[in-house]
């Protein structure tokens, strides 16, 4: 099947004029032999390349190109299928954008392309992306992040005497995972993740219960989370607990019961954040809104969890601006490689900033993801890169640090 791919990358510093010439010669020969056509744009710093050809040939070629050390920060901007080639010339085009003024750049490309591009494709998404990224606005669309190879993680051991363990006879157990401000090296909160009496998953705990019992158990369990947090002396960090929206709506006096649990544990309401998932909230927005008001009035923080993985993301955000918005791993995974994900996350971060909401990146597992998210303005992180959840204990934390400090830093 005919497939189209557009990516953007940054040229390595050592790539010379002669080097670009050689690269182009070899690339043209190979592309011809595997039935790939396209265009390579270069502005002296960035490459933008469009490749089109049989799907499997393109997959193999992009794997090779991605690993080429003559460039880095290779971000896929688009991958799609098309009924026909946009570039059916004999060899891959090269458009040198150097020397063009900002406004001229797009015009220069169009001039060079029009011979080969079907005019009926002028409103085409692929060409729009190509022109946008080649033009003056292209750089502003991409967060230019550090190279992950310039960073490493340094482990800070868990506090002495707090190994993972089960608390015998306790119906609910909790695993603690920190949410960190990575650059300040501060734990801002610990999320208490619910576990069954034997340390099993929440599904194990809830599956045998009716929905009503589930919501009561959900609420009841939080007393143990607050007690644990209080015992472990989490200092200035806050305590985050998850609640089904229906536990807040459906269980009588839910917020008062929560406040009772908090006070019995010796914590203050302002130390607590309630995380709600988007999924269930939409069915009873009014009742949910009333519960959120009550939480706020009591001084408890509110976070929307798993944002982007459910159904009501934007409407929930418009209706109730939470203190924190936790962006789901589904959108963040491999974000450094994917232009569509980057565009979405940049927009989320921008919206959060405008509303005074703190965005939190969930499920961050690699330095590459961390570097990109930091460049996009995210400061709060949670995920295996920093710490795995620890059962009834404070886990060891890994802190990212730059291998060499920047000059003048
Ligand atoms: C910006 C850039 C664009 C490239 N475009 C192509 C291309 O279109 N076709 C190609 O065969 N190689 C291209 N290459 C080179 C490949 O990464 C690789 O070096 C080449 O395919 C030889 O691979 P091989 O050593 O596996 O034979 C490009 C490299 C860079 C840095």
UniProtKB/TrEMBL annotation:
<dbReference type="InterPro" id="IPR050706">
    <property type="entry name" value="Cyclic-di-GMP_PDE-like"/>
</dbReference>
<dbReference type="GO" id="GO:0071111">
    <property type="term" value="F:cyclic-guanylate-specific phosphodiesterase activity"/>
</dbReference>
<dbReference type="Pfam" id="PF00563">
    <property type="entry name" value="EAL"/>
</dbReference>
<dbReference type="InterPro" id="IPR035919">
    <property type="entry name" value="EAL_sf"/>
</dbReference>
<dbReference type="InterPro" id="IPR036046">
    <property type="entry name" value="Acylphosphatase-like_dom_sf"/>
</dbReference>
<dbReference type="Pfam" id="PF04940">
    <property type="entry name" value="BLUF"/>
</dbReference>
<feature type="domain" description="BLUF">
    <location>
        <begin position="2"/>
        <end position="93"/>
    </location>
</feature>
<dbReference type="GO" id="GO:0009882">
    <property type="term" value="F:blue light photoreceptor activity"/>
</dbReference>
<protein>
    <submittedName>
        <fullName>Diguanylate cyclase/phosphodiesterase (GGDEF &amp; EAL domains) with PAS/PAC sensor(S)</fullName>
    </submittedName>
</protein>
<dbReference type="GO" id="GO:0071949">
    <property type="term" value="F:FAD binding"/>
</dbReference>
<dbReference type="InterPro" id="IPR007024">
    <property type="entry name" value="BLUF_domain"/>
</dbReference>
<dbReference type="InterPro" id="IPR001633">
    <property type="entry name" value="EAL_dom"/>
</dbReference>
<feature type="domain" description="EAL">
    <location>
        <begin position="155"/>
        <end position="403"/>
    </location>
</feature>
